[in-house]
Design brief:
The chain is an alpha/beta fold. Among the domains are: about 250 residues, Rossmann fold; about 120 residues, Diaminopimelate Epimerase, Chain A, domain 1 (Roll). The protein contains 22 helices and 17 strands. The strands form 5 sheets. It has a 6-stranded mixed beta sheet with strand order 12-13-14-15-17-16. Strands 2-1-3-4-5 form a 5-stranded parallel beta sheet. β16 and β17 form a beta hairpin. The two termini are about 15 Å apart. The chain binds cytidine-5'-monophosphate (C5P) and zinc ion.
Length: about 550
């Protein structure tokens, strides 16, 4: 069998090292004799991480205490240092606070496991390295397409093969962290997330099909789903409720049934086909590039019902749990706790009401939006909560309320700083714009700390740095436009190259060199069907050959 190119082997080696580090960390947790302290982030990714660790620790019959935090501040680390726990596990946060962890926890003799995917900040004193396991894909040269919950999954899987049934939570967190994207017409999770997805599928906890890429297939009235659809854009329909209604009526698609508004999942196959063809025709007629690129992976969680059976909607609800002060309910939902699952609707309603209030405030105060040549800023002060500002800017940005420029939103924080949330469209992302890089550079000037991803990034900066932040952003974007930064547009970055290589890995562990272009979705569908059909009679060993699991066997 072809052993693959050196690049492919490189990726496989890096993955092996990552899994090895997870296994070492998992062993140190398993053999730690006392109770364990767990701290995770309060967004969808952090909540999914919390659920994974909770289940994994319960399986090991470990005593633990979990907290879900807005951020890992120095104060929180100090508090943890005063507690009696001898081992602390951080997930979806921690890498940005290594120095504080070193000074306040390791130097007090505590053992620490950091499971994260954010950029590292600071170094650990050489003498105390034996007290910490820092498992972060960036440390192994893997830069994207893995979330905090994906890392928590690999960690949990390292602890016990039974935890393979938690892989779906790794995907849920990745979707919550906006780690869906496209390579040509393929749209879905990519790279390492694809490997975790295989585990989720083979463990029977997630199903993938191909469908129209509209948000809210189980909960959003179909005319609303069309109205809110900006990517894919439907000319003459996106952005207008009445045009969406008319579009459906002209196709003879009923808007209501006896229970109320119909959602995408209520449509018959025939109606879905008719709708897809009409959307493609509308896009083609209006000169949209690649009019037929309107489909994507639909991730279904078969043992959940209602909105929680669609991974995108589940991820939104997890996020809503965090942002409305109910992260615990999110953990319960992930673990299938019936009382928490029953509250999904209420949490989502409350969250929508709060976002609605914030959007109404923006509408009444249009001067809070400041547009410059290269960027658009939403300056909310204390009028929008720091917990909601990122969601508000995402909604505004996605729904076409803002021009297609990098968008920055600012809100006052409870502790006297400013929370910044930055977003760019897929179009700008594909052009090579990297918000993480931009925000990181700005924060070097303004003070504070920031990070995130190329398409969605955030920061906390001192209150007095607002204007400096805005002018720095403008100046970096201006320089970039005039080609002074050296960043090449349209060049594949390393992570995109990795995506292709990892996705090309064969089912039996061999690396095929083809990328996930044409035929990839069909291939995966067939693979999934085989997984489904063969589940009863296939023994574990055979299923374990799929996905990430093979790295645990070599
Ligand atoms: O908060 P928001 O959704 O805008 O964050 C976008 C991304 O930026 C997330 O990945 C988040 O973890 C990251 N971020 C960060 N440092 C901050 C705020 C956000 O790395 N201070
Ligand atoms: Zn995350």
């Amino acid at each position: 069998m072809d052993s693959g190119s050196s690049e492919e082997n490189g990726v496989r080696e890096r993955l092996k090292s990552l899994v090895k580090a997870c296994m070492d960390a998992a062993a140190s947790l398993r053999f730690f004799p006392g109770s364990v302290r767990v701290v995770t982030h309060y967004d969808a990714d952090g909540i999914a991480s919390a659920a994974i660790l909770t289940k994994a620790l319960l399986r090991e019959e470990k005593r633990f205490h979990l907290s879900i935090a807005k951020q890992l501040s120095s104060e929180l680390i100090e508090e943890l240092g005063r507690e009696a726990y001898g081992m602390i596990v951080f997930a979806d946060l921690g890498s940005g606070m290594l120095e504080e962890i070193d000074k306040k926890l390791l130097s007090a003799g505590k053992r620490v496991i950091v499971i994260d995917h954010h950029e590292r900040q600071g170094v650990i004193n050489e003498e105390r390295m034996s007290l910490i396991h820092h498992i972060n894909p960036l440390e192994f040269g893997i830069s994207e397409d893995i979330s905090g919950s994906g890392m928590s999954y690999i960690f949990a899987r390292s602890m016990n093969p039974e935890n393979r049934d938690l892989a779906f939570l790794g995907i849920l967190g990745a979707i919550g962290d906006s780690q869906t994207g496209s390579i040509r017409e393929h749209w879905g999770v990519l790279g390492l997330n694809q490997e975790i997805l295989k585990d989720a599928i083979s463990s029977g906890r997630m199903k993938v099909s191909r469908g129209l890429r509209l948000w809210g297939r189980n909960t959003r009235p179909i005319h609303k789903a069309l109205e809110y659809s900006m990517d894919p854009y439907i000319p003459g329909v996106s952005g207008s409720e009445s045009a969406s209604v008319q579009f459906l009526q002209e196709l003879g698609i009923e808007l209501r049934n006896s229970h109320g508004w119909r959602t995408l999942s209520d449509l018959s196959d025939e109606e879905k086909k008719k709708l897809s063809s009409a959307i493609i025709a509308e896009r083609a007629m209006n000169g949209e590039e690649n009019p037929e690129w309107i489909f994507g992976d639909v991730y279904d969680i078969p043992f959940m019902s209602g909105e929680l059976s669609d991974a995108s909607e589940f991820a939104t609800i997890l996020n809503a749990c965090g942002k409305t002060g109910n992260p615990w309910k999110g953990v319960g939902m992930c673990l299938g706790d019936v009382r928490c699952v029953d509250e999904a609707d209420d949490v989502l309603t409350e969250y929508r009401r709060e976002i609605g209030r914030a959007l109404a405030w923006v509408n009444r105060n249009r001067d809070c939006i400041r547009e410059s040549e290269h960027a658009v800023c939403l300056i909310a002060g204390s009028n929008i909560s720091e917990h909601l500002i990122s969601n508000v800017i995402s909604v505004m940005h996605r729904s076409g309320m803002l021009p297609d420029k990098p968008a920055f939103a600012f809100a006052d924080t409870e502790d006297g700083n400013i929370k910044v949330s930055a977003r760019i469209s897929d179009r700008l992302l594909e052009k090579g714009l990297d918000l993480k890089e931009i925000v990181t550079r700005i924060v070097e000037k303004t003070g504070g700390e920031g990070g995130g991803h190329a398409g969605a990034s955030g920061a906390t900066i001192p209150k007095e740095s607002l204007e400096l932040f805005i002018s720095e952003a403008e100046s970096i974007l201006e320089k970039r436009k005039s080609g002074k930064t050296g960043t090449q547009e349209n060049n594949l970055n390393t992570s995109q190259q990795e995506k292709i290589v990892i996705s090309g890995s064969g089912e039996d562990g061999s690396a095929e060199s083809e990328g996930p272009g044409e035929g990839e979705i069909e291939r995966r569908e067939a693979e999934e069907r085989r997984g489904q059909e063969g589940r009863e009679e296939t023994d574990n060993t055979e299923m374990e050959r799929k996905g990430l699991v093979r790295y645990f066997l070599s």
